[in-house]
Amino acid sequence: MTRQPVHFYQVGSFAVGNRLLSSDDRTVQSQRERTNSIDSGHRACQGCGEALGARYALDAAMRATNGHVVAVNATGCLEVFSTPYPETSWRIPWLHSLFGNAPAVATGVAAALRVKGKSDVRVVAQAGDGGTVDIGFGALSGMFERNDDVLFICYDNEGYMNTGVQRSAATPPAARTATTDAVGPEPGNVFGTGKDLPRIAMAHDIPYVATATVADLHDLERKVERAMEIRGARYLHVLVPCPLGWGSASNDTIHIARLAKESGLFPVFEAENGTVTSVSTIRRRVPVEQYLSLQRRYGHLFGKSPRPDIVARIQAIADNNIARYGLVDDATESMEVNT
Amino acid sequence: MLRQIEGSRAIAETVALCRPEVVCAYPISPQTHIIEAVGAMVKSGKLAGCEFINVESEFAAMSVAIGASATGARAYTATASQGLLFMLEAVFNASGLGLPIVMTLANRAIGAPINIWNDHSDAMAARDAGWIQLFAETNQEAADLHVQAFRLAEELSVPVMVCMDGFILTHAVEGVDILDQESVDSFLPPYEPRQVLDIDEPVSIGAMVGPEAFEEVRYLAHLRQLDALERIPGIAQDFKELTGRDSGGLIRTYRIDGAEIIVVALGSVLGTIKDAVDNRRELGERIGVVGITTFRPFPSEAVREALADARQVVVLEKSFSTGFGGVLSTDVAMSMRDMDFDLRTVIAGLGGRAITRRSLEEMLKQANDDALEPLTFLDLDQGAVERERARMRSVRRSGPSAENLLRDRASSAAAPTRRDV
User: Fold this and answer.
1) What per-residue confidence (pLDDT) applies to B322?
2) What ipTM does the predicted assembly reach?
3) What's the Cα-to-Cα distance from A106 to each of A71, A144, B94, B158, rounded to whole Å?
């Protein structure tokens, strides 16, 4: 089936515009029969990107599998805010073991389902960036390498938010955290560090790797659905802004996630068997400053003693992403002129 | 059928008869022969309906077992020493979640200094992890304990660790009667989980529990262990009716009638101790033995009863709590807190040092003469220790003690030792 690109510029925004679509093309979230896999009443902060991401992804997985999903969760915000007894928010079978072992626990669940003849039930494991790129990394690499039948979703908010906003290996350069203070000649997190987990996942040659943000619901849901069509190890990396840790307004979560993509700082793409198969091109390119200046974790780059030199280094990272993934194509450039 | 067979092979074949559904393991000496054999049986199809997963660490091995068990599968793994420590966070987690995983622990020392040989430091490090810990004296008992372990674990929803001495048992070839499938099936019913990840009845497992209920959750786990104290003798009795063998149970006594001195120990060293005791008995010394089969939960009542008439209790341990003394001794002392007796702790066999009958007999003679120190390190080379202490006093950068002691041993090996004189 060829996909007809739909642009919603007529509403004057990047709103998803469900009303303009046929009912078949509307998002899972807009359906009355969505699962509400993680239900309301949980204790996430206002504007939490992770709560949105988890609900979007799991509801899409539930629709894709006709409700045959078991979730495994690493320790972290998502686990903590969703389960203090007796108010569990999970309406699907859900298992939390430890911080660093969600990929291996998911392997065990998948193996048990297979041996029990229930391979129609699918396993989704989820963790924050700490549980993915740091403490869970060994187990994740093992799960990838064995090509176990697990969709692993990283909700990346670029730091240890549950413990009070400390640096992780997913914290970007210059970002202020509780352990990368905004002081000294190179304030915030240092440049030249961190792990690019989607590319590391691709290096395992697993069948499917994708990135997404909570700003593009259609794209996120489509990637989950694609992931559920495939057997074996799959990895979805979702950028989920954190108002608490990023120092951003609660009502800016979606906006900031969109700017991360539109600036080129967070490349949105998918890859099959180690090769990039599609990229979400930038629709209206913005300088990184627009993204950074909405977040107090970058406050030391602006204001009284601005650091345009550091902003320029971050811009160079975005430019490099754009070149690496081909995030800006000629058509996009011309559209930019037209809008 | 009675066969001459390596201990590890006997465990693997017995575990296979228990119809495990998910087996995951990471290799570590001296556990390797067990998982190699189970893996081969799965690969060849001899063990059907089982997933064998080669994982990247012991931490993953226990985690895979947790996921599998929570999904209703009978899960098994095996480890030793550093491997147990590396998975320890998940070991606590498995019991906290109440998942009836069975694990073989091929007991081995813990480094540094790195040492692959047998002692009980690993099991003691996991003593408070909430698992039932059973200790095998022989390979026959090790095999039998696994069948009983699955039943016990699943009846109570508590994980069980079967401890068997690394190399001494795992690599020893001796006669073991391997049960047939029909017998094991009659003894061990299919696993019916208390909690399971089921799309038709979704539950949250592993939720956050705060101060409002945590103590109750822990107390329930304690009660389940106390239930195990009730169930273990019954399961051993059922097993005896099936096989005619005394395997398992809480404790095993040997010649304690009229014994003034009773030696308490865990695992394979009990065989040597019994031989030594037989010799001392011939000399008129009234010595008996109590073997602890069930170490956790600790069978305080049974121990108390067995030791009630002893004047002196000698606890021989293959591990110790640095800076204090015996671990098992503490449990024995607590079990007999209002009774009048002398307690002696003998630390022996650390890092695989052979516990010889001769050394045991010398120690028992001292005990009989009331000359045994409260805490004794059997066959300790006091001279080597003193020489290293002197080096440390004389020079600040005295270097790594382990290497210094090895060098000291090498140079003193040329000279005649005290024993040879």
Assistant:
1) 97
2) 0.95
3) 8, 12, 15, 21
Of A282, A289, A205, A291, whose CA–CA distance to A256 is shortest? A291
Distance CA B84, CA B97 (A): 18
Contact B152, B179 (CB under 8 A): no
In the numeric block, the tokens 């074996």 are attached to A232
CATH assignment of A27-338, among 3.40.50.2020, 2.40.240.50, 3.90.550.10, 3.40.50.970: 3.40.50.970
In whole angstroms, give the CA distance from residue B155 to residue B132: 13
Taking CA–CA distances from B26, the nearest residue in chain A reads A142
Contacts of B22 (CB under 8 A, 6+ apart): A108, A111, A112, A115, B50, B51, B53, B64, B65, B68, B69, B73, B74, B75, B76
Instruction: Please say whether the beta carbons of B139 and B10 come within 8 A.
Output: yes
Chain-chain contact of B208 with A95 (C-beta, under 8 angstroms): no
CA-to-CA distance for B380 and B351, rounded, in angstroms?
13
The whole-angstrom separation of Cα A145 and Cα B56 is 9
Q: Which of B43, B16, B4, B360 is nearest to B181 (CA)?
A: B16
What are the pLDDT digits (tens) for A112-130?
Answer: 999 999 999 999 999 999 9
- What is the predicted pLDDT for the residue at A12? 44
- Residue B23, chain A, CB below 8 Å: the answer is no
User: According to the CATH classification, is domain B2-243 in 2.30.42.10?
Assistant: no
Domain residue ranges in chain B: 2-243, 251-377, 382-414
d(CA B80, CA B61): 12
B177 sits in which H/E element = strand B173-177
Contacts of B204 (CB under 8 A, 6+ apart): A83, A88, A90, A94, A95, A96
Looking at every residue in chain A, the average pLDDT score rounds to 92
User: At residue B263, what is the residue type?
Assistant: V
Tokens of B138: 């022989």
* B290 bridge partner residues: B253, B264
Q: Which residue has the tokens 């430019």?
A: A319
Joined together, the tokens standing for residue B262 give 């009773």
Please list every residue in chain A whose beta carbon sits closer than 8 Å to the beta carbon of residue B207. Answer: 83-85, 88, 96
Containing B105, the helix (H) or strand (E) segment is strand B102-107
- Contact A116/B72, CB-based, under 8 Å? yes
Average pLDDT over residues A286-311: 97
Query: B92 with A135: CB under 8 angstroms?
Result: no
Q: What is chain B's alpha carbon radius of gyration, rounded to the nearest angstrom?
A: 22
Q: Which CATH architecture has domain B251-377?
A: 3-Layer(aba) Sandwich (3.40)
Quote the CA–CA distance of A138 and A334 in Å, as a whole number: 44
Q: Is A152 helix (H, G, I), strand (E, B) or coil?
A: strand
CA count, 13 A, side-chain hemisphere, A123: 33
Chain B CA closest to residue A69? B199
DSSP state for residue B416 in the 8-state scheme: P
pLDDT tens string B123-171 = 999 999 999 999 999 999 999 999 999 999 999 999 999 999 999 999 9
DSSP string, B130-147: S-EEEE-SSHHHHHHHHH
Rg over alpha carbons for chain A, rounded to the nearest Å, is: 19
Closest residue of chain A to B57, computed from CA coordinates: A139
CB-CB contact of A105 with A72 (8 Å): yes
Structure tokens at B173: 């070839």
Task: Decide if A253 contacts A239 (C-beta within 8 A).
Answer: no
pTM of the model: 0.95
Residue ranges per structural domain of chain A: 27-338
The pair phi, psi for residue B281, each rounded to 5°, is -60, -40
Helix axes B58-70, A102-115, angle to 10 degrees: 50
Burial class of residue A116 in the structure, from the number of CB atoms within 10 Å of its CB (0-12 exposed, 13-18 middle, 19+ buried): middle
A145 touches B: beta carbon within 8 Å: yes
- Other C-beta atoms closer than 10 Å to the C-beta of B329 total 25
